[in-house]
Amino acid sequence: MRRRITTIIAIIAAVALLSSVAMATIAWQKLFNETYKPNADTALAKAKCQICHVKGAELNVYGKALDRKPATAATLKAVEKLDSDKDGFSNIEEIKAGTLPGDPKSKPAGKPKK
Ligand SMILES: [Ca+2]
């Protein structure tokens, strides 16, 4: 009986953890879309979860820059000038161009402004 209760508690804890991760992802996605309003036909808008994640809960370099920080517009703004994926374009240049700031294979056409 005690073992069954322990198992049930462990399952509840796991579900709570997974759903809090999912809720955080949804909160970030909503914030990102409200802040930057990516054009619907860009790679950025189509990427959805992959703006910050490689797959599942695993974060890409842009997601890691935001990880464990409050989901606020100020947090997004604080990483705009970084070039998280080191492709030569700052995160904000990529966001404005509709490319992915966490994927070096996705970048704006042309040369970086620097
Ligand atoms: Ca970049």
Strand content: under 5%
Along the chain, the helix and strand elements come as HHEEHHH
Counting DSSP E segments of at least 2 residues, the number of strands comes to: 2
Outline? elongated
Count of alpha/pi helices? 5
Main structural class: mainly alpha
Q: What strand line-up does the widest sheet have?
A: 1-2
Low-confidence stretches: none
| Rg result | 17 Å
Please indicate the count of domains.
1
Describe the biggest sheet?
Answer: 2 strands, antiparallel
Mean pLDDT comes to: 93
Helix content: 40-55%
Q: Which ions, cofactors or small ligands are bound in this entry?
A: calcium ion
**How far do the termini sit from each other?**
66 Å
Compact overview of the structure:
The protein has 114 residues and is mainly α.
Task: Show the helix and strand layout.
Elements: H1 2-36, H2 43-47, E1 53-55, E2 58-59, H3 61-66, H4 73-78, H5 91-97
The structure holds calcium ion.
Residues 83, 85, 87, 89, 94, 101 line the site of calcium ion.
Descriptive overview:
The chain has 114 residues and is mainly alpha-helical. It has one domain (2-97). The protein has helices at 2-36, 43-47, 61-66, 73-78, 91-97, and strands at 53-55, 58-59. It has a two-stranded antiparallel ribbon with strand order 1-2. The longest helix has 35 residues, at 2-36. It is elongated, with a radius of gyration of 17 Å. The chain binds calcium ion. Calcium ion binds at residues 83, 85, 87, 89, 94, 101. Calcium ion (CA) binds at residues 83, 85, 87, 89, 94, 101.
